[in-house]
Specification:
Lyase, Ornithine Decarboxylase, Chain A, domain 1; alpha/beta; 10 helices; TIM Barrel; single chain; 30% helix; D-ser_dehydrat-like_sf; 369 residues; 17 strands; nine-stranded mixed beta sheet; eight-stranded parallel beta sheet
């Protein structure tokens, strides 16, 4: 087995990487990023891609260079990694519920602008106390429930009350509002998705209008994911989108969400057993690919005519069909869901033309607190 350090892989063909090997085609990643950024620009919106899939400052900086105004993180710990790498404009699309986490949120403001979501007066009070104690300023986004029924204030009246509390609290400011139409990515056909997404997003923009009418500035109104952001075009009042997964793509986006972008993220595996005709076993199971239970299994990108029929912890079961797969053959897989795969790996291998050009640290993996 090749125990070479990751840096030693630079300049090597991807077919020589030890498997399972997570791969990012950087030409495709960059092209997808440009497409998303350009589409948003054409509709007068900014791009703040979510980094919860790749968890990598290197890929976040690539997105910033390709048109993003900032990034989105899922966790405070992820944001701390990103700010430590020099990224200074972040929205944490999540709530903090303890004084210790708000203390960290106040401290991170010394090197970056990092905003956090709130939907409860206790969030505001803890944020204010932490900011005053640290001598910093924390931007807060009021999150609005627009149909997912997960987090967020229920309706514009509650948003106005929270805005009033933020305005009266020292050390905090209303930096924006957000909502997520995460219950709608799989809606199809496209016309039906557009109707439902726009109805959901108008709950957010309507709440923002009410907050403004009460005398408060709302500089940013943020929403959208890869599967839904285009459906929201035409809704007045949205200022930015958090769509980020489209840079990588996966089977979920391709088949369930009908996103028409090429795939940048794959996983190389090797056939380790082919004892039964028409069946092959690889060295990539759900601990490498992330697909488990009700999640979509991966697709076989190459060779053609092969399907994944099962995954155990460390093995993939392939129905080889007409393909004559033998021990040592390479198989390229498209993950079922990129978010569920990348965090299992320490490194990704960025390549161009089949040659490794960058070793990408998944530096924020495990930073769940």
């Amino acid at each position: 087995m090749d125990h070479s350090p990751p840096a030693a892989m630079l300049g090597r063909p991807i077919d020589e990487l030890p498997t399972p090997a997570p791969l990012v085609d950087l030409d495709v990643f960059d092209a997808n990023a440009r497409v998303i950024a350009d589409r948003l620009t054409q509709h007068g919106m900014s791009w703040r891609p979510h980094s919860k899939a790749h968890k990598s400052p290197q890929l976040a900086k690539r997105q910033l260079a390709l048109g993003a105004v900032g990034i989105t993180c899922a966790k405070l710990g992820e944001a701390e990694v990103m700010t430590g790498a020099g990224i200074d404009n972040i929205l944490v699309a999540n709530m903090l519920a303890t004084a210790d986490k708000w203390r960290r949120a106040a401290e991170v403001q010394r090197t970056a602008t990092v905003a956090f979501c709130v939907d409860d007066e206790r969030h505001v009070r803890m944020a204010s106390h932490a900011a005053v104690a640290a001598g910093t300023d924390i931007g807060l986004f009021i999150e609005v429930d627009i149909g997912m029924h997960r987090v967020g204030v229920r309706g514009p009246d509650a948003a106005v009350r929270l805005a009033e509390l933020i305005a009266a609290a020292p050390g905090v400011r209303l930096a924006g509002m957000m909502g997520y139409e995460g219950h709608l990515p799989a809606v199809w056909p496209a016309a039906e998705k557009t109707i439902k997404v726009q109805a959901a997003v108008r709950k957010l923009t309507g709440a923002a209008d009410r907050v403004r009418a009460a005398g408060h500035q709302v500089p940013i109104v943020s929403s959208g994911g890869t599967a839904t952001y285009q459906s929201a075009f035409g809704v007045e009042g949205l200022t930015e989108s958090q769509s980020g997964g489209g840079c990588l793509m996966d089977r979920f986006y391709l088949e369930t969400c009908h996103v028409e972008l090429p795939v940048a993220l794959t996983l190389a595996a090797t056939v380790v057993s082919a004892a039964e005709p028409g069946v092959a076993i690889t060295d990539a199971g759900f601990k490498a690919l992330g697909s488990l239970g009700s999640m979509l299994p991966p697709l076989v990108a190459a060779p053609s005519g092969v399907t994944v029929s099962g995954l155990s912890a460390e093995h993939g079961l392939l129905a080889a069909g007409p393909a004559d797969l033998r021990v040592g053959d390479r198989v390229t897989l498209i993950p079922g869901y990129s978010d569920a795969m990348i965090f299992l790996h320490d490194k990704l291998y960025g390549h161009r033309g089949g040659v490794v050009t960058e070793v990408i640290d998944v530096a924020a993996r495990g930073r769940l607190q």
